[in-house]
Specification:
The structure is a single chain. The protein has about 250 residues and is an alpha+beta fold. Helix 10 links the parallel strand 12 and strand 13. The protein is elongated. The chain starts with a helix and ends with a strand. This is DUF6088 family protein. Pfam families: DUF6088 (PF19570).
Length: about 250
């Protein structure tokens, strides 16, 4: 079987609407140039629609003609690779999903373990990727990474009240088991900014009744960090260097 025949056979089994790139073709690692040529020369013959350079999908034909991929298919392409989790939804789309804002996001932001940035625009769905702060993205730590991302931008969530957001995050934090709390501490210390670590320590003390000595020791004792609700939280300044003064 030739490389071209192998490519055709594999594409035949790809579900319509599912995005794929050259690297998703099984023989790409050993025959990259041949795979690229086989796909590019036969886009129409294979029934493919090109999204951008190197990214395609097989059109699913509906009552009114070819249909674009579903939102979940687009997101899955950028967050999963060969059954391995490589990214997660963050930013405004996450705030909306978690009920932190009623503002419908104009685009979906995905944080990935890869250092490159990508963009895709399909039937009104705009998606952008950016490098995740913590590179070891797994299926089991996605919610922890999302929690830290929200903390990192808690003052910048559109159409949201900081105290309301804090309480919703606190409710979520209360559900985390001890193992997840320990993992949150480690990830924050390894990958997140000083202010995010301070906020996490404050949230743990306020909503879990747990004082994180590890987080406190990771902070610069001479630094102070802004948080608009610091005056409403006991020990926010004393333990976590959080103040309402910018």
């Amino acid at each position: 079987m030739t490389i071209a025949q192998s490519v055709y056979k594999e594409i035949e089994h790809i579900r319509p609407g599912k995005l794929f790139s050259y690297r998703d073709i099984g023989v790409y690692s050993d025959h990259s140039e041949a795979v690229v040529k086989a796909v590019n020369r036969n886009v129409k013959k294979l029934g493919l629609i090109k999204v951008k350079k190197g990214l395609f999908y097989k059109a699913e034909v509906g009552r009114f003609g070819p249909m674009a991929p579903r939102e979940n298919d687009v997101i899955q392409y950028f967050t999963q690779h060969k059954s391995r989790t490589v990214g997660y939804v963050t930013g405004p789309a996450l705030y909306y999903r978690w009920g932190l804002t009623t503002q419908v996001p104009a685009e979906v932001n995905v944080a990935t373990a890869e250092d490159k940035r990508e963009k895709a625009n399909l039937s009104g769905l705009r998606l952008t990727t950016s490098p995740a702060r913590y590179k070891r993205v797994t299926k089991t730590n996605i919610e922890l990474l999302q929690f830290l991302d929200v903390l990192n931008h808690i003052e910048r969530i559109p159409d949201a009240n900081v105290e309301d957001v804090s309480n919703k995050l606190g409710t979520r934090l209360k559900r985390f088991p001890d193992k997840s709390i320990a993992e949150l501490e480690d990830i924050a210390i390894k990958a997140y900014a000083e202010r995010t670590k301070a906020l996490l320590g404050m949230f743990m003390e306020r909503y879990k009744g747990y004082f994180s000595d590890k987080l406190q020791k990771s902070l610069n004792p001479t630094s102070t960090f802004y948080f608009s609700n610091a005056d409403k939280v006991p020990n926010a300044k004393q333990h976590w260097h959080l103040t309402i003064n910018k």
